[in-house]
Design a protein that fits this description.
With 227 residues, this protein is of the alpha+beta class. The chain has 2 domains: 83 residues, Glutaredoxin (3-Layer(aba) Sandwich); 118 residues, Glutathione S-transferase Yfyf (Class Pi), Chain A, domain 2. 51% of the residues lie in helices and 10% in strands. α1 runs parallel beside α3, α1 crosses α7 and α5 packs antiparallel against α6. The chain starts with a strand and ends in a 10-residue tail after the last helix. The chain binds glutathione (GSH). Glutathione (GSH) binds next to α1 and α5. InterPro entries: Glutathione-S-Trfase_C-like, Glutathione-S-Trfase_C_sf, Glutathione_S-Trfase, Glutathione_S-Trfase_N, GST_C, Thioredoxin-like_sf. This is Thioredoxin-like protein. GO terms for molecular function: glutathione transferase activity; maleylacetoacetate isomerase activity. It holds the Pfam family GST_C.
Length: 227
Amino acid sequence: MALNFRALHLYTAPLSGCSARIRIASHLKSIPLTYHTIDISKSEQSSSSYLAINPNGRVPSLIVEASSNERFTITQSPAILDFLSGHFPEPPLLPGTERPRERARVMELASLVACDIQPPQNSSIRKKITQDFSGDSEAWARWVYERGFSVYETFLETGRKEIGEGKYSVGDAISLADIFLVPAVQGGLRVGVNPVKWPILNQVVRECWKLEAFRKGGLGGHGKLLP
Ligand SMILES: N[C@@H](CCC(=O)N[C@@H](CS)C(=O)NCC(=O)O)C(=O)O
């Protein structure tokens, strides 16, 4: 049964791609969120007060205050998106089970970003590479993004042949794949990875960027444009 809410509190960082996924979805779905900014440059994600909310010490986290006074926390952006989509189904961000191929492709692409592109170059990993292993963490991040975006482009190419043409990652409707992709591309830009190398991906990102939800919710939070 759907819950009634008093408030939905999002713990978010302006330059966090994982938080941007939730911000973009909430703009697309007109979900009223109360933002609480965590400053990663000051390591606020590792403060004891934040660790009490999210023991993983990462953003985003969502605190749900239900009308019944029930209060609970959800961490991990896919879990938060699943919860929000359950309560705010329109517009849907995942094709229905009657379209198994499109649905699987959306999940594949979103997972490519969530599992194979974002985690290996997350800020705490980069810090470790620099501080403990004297490595060049920006070069590492560039390699991770470039590899990941090349794979994403290959899926877009085969998808267009096998599933069909479309403006966005899968077809003509915005999906979770786009919501995961755009902040990742913005993250890549911050370390010098230019998406023009991947023409279909670049076109998809540009289509998404025409939508206010992406400009408002993306990295920087308030309309920081792609170059
Ligand atoms: N799997 C998590 C990843 C969360 C994550 O890595 N968040 C990053 C920002 S995008 C973060 O908080 N980094 C700070 C740190 O690792 O200390 C999710 O999807 O929510």
